[in-house]
Structures are given as C-alpha cells and as structure tokens.
Amino acid sequence: MSQKLFRLTLLFVVLAMLMAMVSACGGSSAPAQEAAPTEAAAPAEEAAPAEEATPAEEAAPAEEATPAEEAAPAEEAAPAEGDNLVGIVLPTRDEPRWLQDQARFEELLGTAGVPVQILFSQGDSAIERTNVESLITQGAKVIILTPQDGTAAAAAAELARDAGAKVISYDRLILDTDAVDYYVTFDSVAVGEAQGQFLADRAEGEGNPLYLYAGAATDNNAFLFFEGAWNVLQPLIADGTFVIKNSSEAVAVQDKAELTRDEMAAIIGQVTTNWDFNTAKSLAEANLTAATAEDKGDVFILAPNDGTARSIADVFAADADVSSYLITGQDAEIASIQYIIDGKQSMTVLKDTRVLAADAIAAATTFLEGGTPEETTTYNNGVIDVPAKPSEVVTVTKDNVKEAIIDSGYWPASDFTGLE
Ligand code: BGC
Description:
420 residues; alpha/beta; seven-stranded mixed beta sheet; four-stranded parallel beta sheet; 15% strand; binds beta-D-glucopyranose
C-alpha cells in the first residue's frame, strides 16, 4: 500500500470513528432520532413476519438506542405511507412496560392489515408533539397516543384532529380537550383496588405501618390508581388497622372515604415517584430516615407500579428495622415476576398488553373504515366524555404466578429462575 493510500485509509477510519462517537452521544431523546422511522413503518402487507420486521429494536435492551435509529437522520424519514398509516406514540423506552406494548404492536403487524409506525417520546412532551407532527406529515389517519403529560398532550391531539386524523388515547387519558375520539385502557381504579385489597387482606390487628407511594401527577392514571387503593384502604386507616407513616396530607384526610382531585393531588405531591425508579428510591430512603424504629417492623407498602416497587422494595429490604414488608406493583414486568418468585415483591397486577394493543389496532381499523369502535363506558377528560373500552386486570402473587403468567403465555418460563 502506498503511503498516500495508507494516509487516506487512516483518515477514513478516524472519520468513521468520529461519526460513530457523535452518533452515540446524540442520546435517545433527540427528536430527530425519535422521529426516525422503524421498520415497523413498513405496510403490514409487505412486511416480513413481525419477528423479522424490527430486528434492531426487538433485540435492543431498553437503555440502548438501536443502531438503525442512531444511523437514520431525520431527513431520511419514511416516505408517506399512503392513506392508512396508523401512528403510535409511546411515552418512553426507559420503562419495560412500554417496551411490552411496542412488542405487542409489532406482533400484530403481520395481521393488522394497516401500516403502523411506533415512536417514543422519552418522557418529553415536546418530543411527543414532534412525533405527532411527523406522523401527520407522513399521512397518518389515526394517532394512538399515550400522553407523557395528559394536559400538555391536548395540543398534539388538536394538531392531529385539525389534520383530519382520529386520536385514540392509549392507556393514559389525554385531558382538557375535545380532540380525543376514543380511549383504550385498563380499568385503572380496579388496579388500585387490587393493590389496596392485597394489603388489606394481610393486615391483622391494629397499628400496621403503611407507606404510600404514587405515580406522576401529570398522569391521570396516577389519580385513578390512588383512588382505587384509597377506596379499599381508607376504612382500615380510619379504624386504626393501618397507620400512614409517610404522608401528612393523607393523614389529614384519613377520615374521608372520597377525596377530591385536589386532596389527592396534595397527597400525590408528597409521595410521588414521578414513575421514576431513582426518585422512588430516594423518596423511600428519605421516608425511612425520617421514620423511627417503631414506624417500621412489619410494614405494608402501596407502590404504584413494578419499576418503582423494585426500587422501594430494595430500600426497605436493606433497613435493619424492617422485619418484613409486603409491597404492591403493576405491569407484570419480567423483573418483577422474578422478584415475586424470589419473595422480594409481593404482588403485581397483570394488565395484558396483548389485549390493549389488539383493541387499539381494532379501533384504528374501524376508524379507517369509517366506523365507530365499540364503547362500553366513558371517561370524562375535563371537557368531554371520551368513549372507552377498559379491560380487566388480574392480581398476580407467588401463588398464581405460573397460571397467570406462564400458562397464559404472557411470558415464557425460560425467562425465570426458581419457578416451581
Ligand atoms: C401505566 C402503568 C405504568 C405507568 C408508568 C401508567 O400510566 O398505566 O402501566 O407503569 O404509567 O409508566
């Protein structure tokens, strides 16, 4: 090799390395990357089977942006998908819950009969809006949106409505706008009630220490979960079975069976995890630091979902004054099923994302055909009663984990160790 050729080759290698570094530093939250098309955008008719349709995304763990997405600059966004594009905007890749939904949507691609594109908002309402705009530009006629912040998402929903697209609120309700055509969700009050019931059924005598934790105040579901839990727990707080240890706002209203939204907001403000694992951990640590040894012992913990439950459980498990703890969760995340098998988390609530994704695609298809999806109830979003179809939920404990999770085909046994 001549020296000139060698130098040129070296220069090329260095340039390629630099480009790779710049791309890797971009972070998964950059709008351009979030807007990058996935193979899921391919029309279902043309798409390879679901498993092959998105190799990069399916294989990648949550934290890592996929090579395909890193490489795709915004200008290379997918060309218009024709009249039937269904755009799906999910809140974040950083929680296994939403990767479940992504995978379930991808499993449906082969059968959906419509082209689908999935984008993530990475916890940022501005990216969420950019994602909706991008989908509309590509001709999306239905937008399935899980709002990062229920109220902030109203503007994005109105954008979609103004462009002639139908808006389906997915799992979380878009608030304070009439630009929501349909809501597919689980019965979130029932989720909270299942969590509360689990703790209530296991409390004996009086004075059982109760620690309350909640989701993000920007998520309407956080209120519904708390409302459901309060429905069950409040009578047992009022009669002294439980004693709330970490929320003066909850103690102040402990004799009230029904709380106003403002009262719930005040409690959630004190005990919010913001759906963030680190926030949950720090809050639990602060609560235990502030508590006396008598506030500990055999404790009962209302944790709003699996990710936060694992963080909070680890903190309580490490406290020498906590002799035992019972802790709730929801989402049937693989890591939490393992925690349940190992006795580190007490329960979860299975919200079958296979059903939710299928309901959303069925509703989208109905809209594309000019029809009206099935409505079993309505949810008021502050402006209108949104037609909705909530799905049922299942309590999962160590006792029924095999039946509810493995036998139902939700997760394969090979994902776990120690299953009996
Ligand atoms: C969902 C939960 C999820 C939580 C955090 C809620 O709106 O219903 O399933 O764990 O958000 O992302």
